[in-house]
Every structure is written in structure tokens, then in C-alpha cells.
Amino acid sequence: MESMAAAPTASVPKACNGWNETIGAYRFFDNDSVEWQAILEPHWHQTERRKAEQSVVLCLQDTTELDFNGQQANGLGPLSYEAQRGMYVHPTYAVTTAREPLGILDVWMWARELKDKNGQRGGPKESLRWIEGYERLAELAPRLASTRLVYVADREADMMPLMARAQQLGCPADWLVRAAHNRCLPNSEKLWPHTTDGAALGEIEFTLAARPGSKERIVRQRLWARRVELKAGKGEVVGATCIVAREYDAPSGTKPIEWRLLTNRVAVTAAEVAELIDWYRARWEIEMLFNVFKTGCKVEELQLGTIERIERALVLYLVVAWRIAYLVRMGRTCPDLEAQLFFDPDEIRGAYLLNKLRTPPNPKLNEVIRMIARVRGFLGRKGDGEPGAKTLWEGLRDVRASALTLQALRELGD
Fold first, then answer.
1. d(CA 232, CA 375)
2. Which end of the chain has fewer surrounding CB within 10 Å, N or C?
3. How far apart, in whole angstroms, are the C-alpha atoms of residue 297 and residue 289?
4. Triad 409, 413, 414: Cα angle to 5°
5. Which residues pair with 43 in a beta bridge?
């Protein structure tokens, strides 16, 4: 784990320290007696400990596909197109309401079966992953009596079986999902027009970060919320709050942002609605995790022969991706923490050596993160902001190599 975390962009042989360690890594991935759940268990325990320190924890769920097309690995299946070969990963990612990453809570991994001659696909229903993800939180909730867990997901989780199951369990964890269906209410009204009928509760304003194809901009939205009963079949209903956040005065040529959310929580005031919208916006953190996981750790380049080996490697790289995301976030929100809480002394020294600088006494976290990023071209000018995950993960590889060199020189007595 240490080697892979230090060189997340490298292949397995490059990430490991020498041929013996490389052979050991492959044997580990090939060990049928090692289940991927056992690999994640220590991280699960530490994540649970971190969660216990928070009053509210957002548990983000989403799915990403991994394209291993062209690789000869047993057990892979079709992706969005039948000709593609790969698999799917669906983690639960815990963050605080301030977006601080806490860790990986759970993960679903699977490969689709090929369609039969009738165009039907066998195997478990993929929608089960959303329900099982909630059930996992429901099992965890009693152990975290002082922490409220909030299940947060995008439109794919807008499923009545999920909401009904949560209500059946007594909602030990809250749920907040983006609505995909303009449902018909028991009185035959449609959900979304019903929610926005009347004056808005209030307004919010926030900065939407720059994303591929769009610049950073200010978003202003009007808010509506209405408590409703949703049909759950056979005369059953599920109680929920529907929220609509509708942008106004959007820049010319820009599609206004409108979010429609469903939650078990009661939200009556504009402040309560705004808080829930802020929690939903935190869902972007799992997209950042996927970015590090796929583009930084380059997991789609793994060549391990079977899906079982790949799964063992993937859970390790999920933890590596969390660590990088954690460093980025802490470097921005807690810049004055001591760097030695996060890095080995040789890593700190290596970061400064690569920048041809002497290591100062007791450097701060943000200072060392900037040194690591400078190795990969981060200039640190006034308008540059803080280094991102990509620059950090690339710099970590070089810093780790420098740290290993320092250790080798010390062992040789130089």
C-alpha cells in the first residue's frame, strides 16, 4: 500500500521497490484466500473512527465504469457498448459537510453478463447497489449514535424501492437524492409543478467552480420546498420533501441550473433548504475521487489477468485516491498543520531537495504540498490558487523517488 500510494501514477512494477516487491504484489493480488473486503477492512475501521468525530457525515454514492478494452483479463464484461470490455465500481465515499474526505465506506464491483440471443442480460439487477448501499449505512448508524449519516446520490438513485426500504427501516440514515421522475401524486398533481406552486421560500447564491468546458461563475437560485406523499404501490406511500432550486439571471448563452431533490428530512425554512442543497453540492467530491482513481492512479492500465486480481488492486487504489484527495483538501483548509503529520521526514526533505532548497524547521502542510506541486510545474503565483489533485499526485511520484534515494544513501553511510 505504501509503495502504491507513493507512486499512484505508476504501473504495479514501477510502484513497487524492486523485483521482489513486485513479485510479492502480484502474488498478493493472485492470492485467492485474500478477499478484497479483508483488504479494505482496516480502512473501513479508520473511516468509522473519523466519522464518529462528526455530527453529520455525507455518504456519497455513484458509479464509474472502467474500460479494460484490448486487455486479456478473465471475467470482464460489456460496458455502455457491447463491444467494450471492462467493469463497474460503485463506492460509498464519506465526507464532512465541509467537504473533508473521511474515507471509503463500502464498494460494489461487478462485470455485466453478455446479452443472450433474446437481448436479455442475466445477473443481479444493477439497481440493487443503491439499495444495498443504503442498507450498509443503516447497519452502521447504531454504532455512531452521535453522528447523523446522510446518503447522497444523483438521479440514478431516484427509485421508489430505495425510499420505501429506508422508510421500512425507520430511516436510521437520512437520504437525499436528485429527482429524475416528475411523479404523479395521490391527488393526481405532478410533483414538480406542485412543489413550485406559490412564492419561493428564499434565494441562495454560490460560486460554481470551473469545470471542463465552463468557467467559474456565480449562481443565484430561488428555492421551493413542499412536503409530499409519494405513491409506493399497493396503497402505500412514502413521506418526502421535494426541493426545487431554480437559477435566475443566468449568463446569456448558459443553460440555467435547476436542481430537483427528494429527501426524508423535513425542510420548512429557506435556511434548512439551503443546507440540503449545500449537502447535495458536496456530491461533486466523489467525481473528484473518480478523477484521481482513473486518471491519476491509471487503474484502467492494470494488467492482472483476472477480474479477481483487478478487484484486489482496485480497493487499494481507492484508498490511495482518498489519501490524495484528503491531502489536497487539508492543504487548503488546514494549511498551518505540521507537515510531519502527513509525510515521512524523507519525503519532506526530498520535496525541498527537488526544488533545490534547504528544508526549513517544522514546515507546514501547505508549504510542503506546494513544494511537491512545484516539482511538476506549479508556479504558485498570486493568481494561481492552490495546486490540484493532478499536480499533487504527479509530484508525489518524484518526491517518493527522492525519499528512497535519501534512505539508500543513509543505509550506505553516505
1. 56
2. C
3. 11
4. 55
5. none
pLDDT per position as a tens digit, 188-219 = 899 999 999 999 999 999 988 877 677 888 99
Q: Quick one: CA torsion of 283, 289, 291, 293, rounded to 10 degrees?
A: -150
* 355: its cell numbers: 526544488
Please check whether residue 129 is in contact with residue 108, taking contact to mean a CB–CB distance below 8 angstroms: yes
Distance CA 41, CA 321 (A): 17
Percent of the chain whose pLDDT exceeds 90: 41
Q: Is 72 helix (H, G, I), strand (E, B) or coil?
A: coil
The span from the CA of 318 to the CA of 270, in Å, is 37
Q: State the Cα–Cα distance between residues 389 and 325, nearest whole angstrom.
A: 6
Q: Name every residue whose Cβ is closer than 8 Å to that of residue 41 and which is 6 or more positions away in sequence.
A: none
Question: Is the Cβ–Cβ distance between 404 and 377 less than 8 Å?
Answer: no
* H or E element that contains 207: strand 202-208
Coil vs helix vs strand at 217: strand
Neighbours of 55 (CB within 10 A): 9
Q: How many CB atoms are closer than 10 A to CB 127?
A: 13
The Cα 240–Cα 167 span in angstroms is 10
* CA–CA dist 72, 305 (Å, integer): 6
Tell whether the torsion through CA atoms of 157, 163, 122 and 300 is positive or negative: positive
Q: Which residues pair with 203 in a beta bridge?
A: 222
Among 12-21, 29-38, 304-313, 391-400, name the one with the lowest average pLDDT. Answer: 12-21
d(CA 301, CA 308): 16
Output the pTM of the full model. 0.83
In the chain, the largest separation of any two C-alpha atoms, in whole Å, equals 82
| Residues whose CB falls within 8 Å of the CB of residue 15, separated by 6 or more in sequence, listed in order | 3, 4, 6, 7, 8, 25
**Rounded-to-10 torsion of CA 348, 352, 357, 358:** 10
